[in-house]
Each structure stands twice: as C-alpha cells, then as structure tokens.
Amino acid sequence: ANTLVAVKVRHPGVSTIMARDFVLMQRAARAAGQLPGLKQLRLDESVRQFGGPLQEQLDLSVEAAHLDRFGRNFKAWRNVKFPTPIYPLVRPDVLVESFEPGSAIQGYVAASAACAAKAALAALQSDNSSSFPSGSGSESGVALMALAADGLTTSHCVASAAAAKRSGDNESLRVRGAIAETGMHVYLKMLLSDNFIHADMHPGNILVREVDRSGGIAERFALLLKQLSWGLPLPGVRDVFQNVVMPPQPQLVLLDTGMIAELSSSDQRSVVQFFRELTRQNGEGIARSILAMSEMHTCPDPDRFVVSLRDMFNALDPEVIRTRTSEVLQDMIEELRQHQVTLKATVSTVVVTTLVLEGWSRELNPDLHIMDALRDMLAVDWKERLSRAVDKVMATGSLAVV
C-alpha cells in the first residue's frame, strides 16, 4: 500500500511494426549490397546485428529477469542500485517495478563539460595571451570559445581539473570523479566477472542520488573483500579510510536493462585476451583475438589484417592508447571494416558499450582511463602486478594492494 512504482508498457502493435520495418530494412540492405561501392559495407549484416538486441527488448518479462539478475550480482554494492520488479505485476507487455528517485547523470556530465570549458578558456588565455585579441567584441569571444572547445579533448582537460580545484570546486570534483569511477568498475565487473553486461549504459539510463551517510561500515569492508575476489585492485589505505569513515560515494541507479550482452565462454576468453593485448599495445595479438571473436570466413586475408593492426599499433604512442582509448578503438573498427572482419553481434555490443562508457566517464573525470584499470586487472604475472602497485604508490602516495 502507498508504494510508489514505475510502470513500463509496451505500445500495442509495436512488435508487428518493428518486424515489418526490419524486413524492409533487410531487403533494402541486400539490394544496396549488390552495388559495387557498398558491397564491402555488409549492410545486411549490420541490420541483423542491430535488430537482434532491439527485438529482445520487446518482452518486458525478460527485462524483469535481467533486473533480478543484476540485483543479485550487485547485492553487496552499496553505491549501485537497480529497480526491483514487482511480481506478479510483470507480463511480456507490462513491467511494474520500484520507482527509483535520482537526478539524471546528464546534469553531472553537462556541469563537468561547463567547468572544463571555463578552465580550458582560462588556460588558453593564460598560455596564449599574446595570440588572442584584447577586445571585448563578440568575434573575440567566439574565437576564444571555439579554441576552448577544441582544447577540451586534449591537454586542457587535465588543466581544467586543476583549475577547478584551485577555484574551490573540490566537492563537485569528488562527486563527479566518484560517479565516473563507479560506472567504470560496474562495467568491468559485468564484463570480466559476471559475463552479464548492461548493453545500454548511456547517460539517459543512469540516475545519481546520495545514499544514507550513516552506518554501513561492515558492508563496505565486505565490498572491499568482494572486489578482491573478482580481480579488481583494492584501493589504497587512504582510499579505504575515505570510503569507510568518510561519506560514501554517490549511488548510481541503472535503468532500462532490456538489452544485455552475455558472451560464450570462448568469446569471453577472447575478449579478455583482446583487452590484455590492448594494454600491451600488441597489435598482432589484438588482431588474432579479434579474428577469434569474428564470424567465420568473412575476412578474405586474415594474415594481411594481422599485419595491418601490428603496423597500426607499432606506430602509436602508448600514451595515446591510454588517454584516447575511444579514438584508438574507432580507428581499429575502421580497420575491421576495411578488411571485412565481422564481429559477432554480442562482441560488437561489448565494443560499443565500452565506447559509450569511455565517453561519458571521461567527460566526468578526464584523469580516469579505462586502460589503467584494465592494465591492473589483467596483469597475469605477479611481478607485473607488483610493478604496477609500486607505480601507483609513487604516483598517488597511497599504499595499494593489487
């Protein structure tokens, strides 16, 4: 009684409409694929991969089952929440679930971008004061903002964080950083531990709210042990103190779990190997792991594809791979297209989800790099893990266990 709920209803007739639309799209893709300039794009395969996950979302009882499973997987996580389905009010065309209040994460991303713009503008004015017009006209302002916007994707992202700290925005930075770090760890747990991935983790499906600041110390220590059990590096002593004694991190609420990715055992091993080779900048190993995850017999010359990726990564600065991971992945996807390598649908979903996550998490915290987390988690040799622990101590001043 008096329980606030959210009700999700499938529009009548949408299944028939969607099935019809995909038939038309497939016919159009097959026809376009006969044209010489479009044949290599394999449009019919793209439509097939695009349509499968969307059709799964039509059955709301499946989404309810996904919510149940995510709830179990993250039961020990104090700073992550999924809506709870309310049975028996669940059917293929209706889903009644707990109403989860919160603020849209887009607001935090937008605030982060605004702070970055101001800081980047200040950095540009300071670093290049002689090259900027001194007038107050609109053209000067437009020029400054254009250059600042360009700088947001480069070194001034780091400068913006430092400038924000100097301006007394520490709490806002802490919250945005916590949101970004939590989102990344949630995704990596889904991918590397649970093999059950929310495949629609764009900002529109994530809410943020403050959790109860009292108690919960035993729960948070249990979470630290849980992190160790599935491979994430434990935080340093200073971070343990902040997470256990100081106010907890903001809580993320993940919505719309109709679209998920679940890899086969062999594909999961290949995905893990792909990310491991990526952290090592081993283009040849990356190519071979990609071929292991691809549809059979689509690449006409696998050896040439291996050589192409090897040359691509040999030419890259390791820092570029670390700080501009999404751009590197996009360039790699173009290589797949050029060599007609077709990834399996679930693997493609994982790649796209990684790109989406990297995008909004970097907006919130430009200093957060998914490659750093992957490098720590996937270091199989104990000497390599120890080396990374020493590097982290030297860089942050905190004693970390990895």
Structure description:
By secondary structure, the protein is an alpha+beta fold. It is 60% helix and 8% strand. It contains 17 helices and nine strands. The strands form three sheets. A four-stranded mixed beta sheet has the order 2-8-7-5. A hairpin with a 2-residue loop joins strand 3 and strand 4 (94-98). The chain is globular. Mean pLDDT is 77; it is low at 130-161, 163-168 and 385-402.
> How many strands, what sense, and barrel or not for the largest sheet?
4 strands, mixed
Number of helical stretches of at least 4 residues: 17
DSSP strand (E) fraction? 5-15%
Structural shape: globular
Within the largest sheet, what's the order of strands? Answer: 2-8-7-5
Number of distinct beta strands: 9
- Helix content bin: 55-70%
Distance between the terminal alpha carbons, to the nearest Å?
Answer: 47 Å
User: Low-confidence segments, ≥5 residues, pLDDT <50?
Assistant: 130-161, 163-168, 385-402
CA-based gyration radius: 23 Å
Structural class label = alpha+beta
* Multimeric status of the protein: single chain
| pLDDT averaged over residues | 77
SSE series:
EHHHEEEEHHHHEEHHEEHHHHHHHH
Blueprint of the fold:
Blueprint: E1 5-9, H1 14-32, H2 43-56, H3 60-73, E2 80-81, E3 85-91, E4 94-98, E5 103-104, H4 105-127, H5 138-151, H6 156-166, H7 170-194, E6 197-198, E7 206-209, H8 217-229, H9 237-244, E8 251-254, E9 260-261, H10 265-279, H11 283-293, H12 302-314, H13 318-323, H14 325-338, H15 345-364, H16 370-377, H17 382-396
Helix pairs in contact: 1-2, 4-5, 4-6, 4-15, 7-15, 10-11, 10-16, 11-12, 14-15
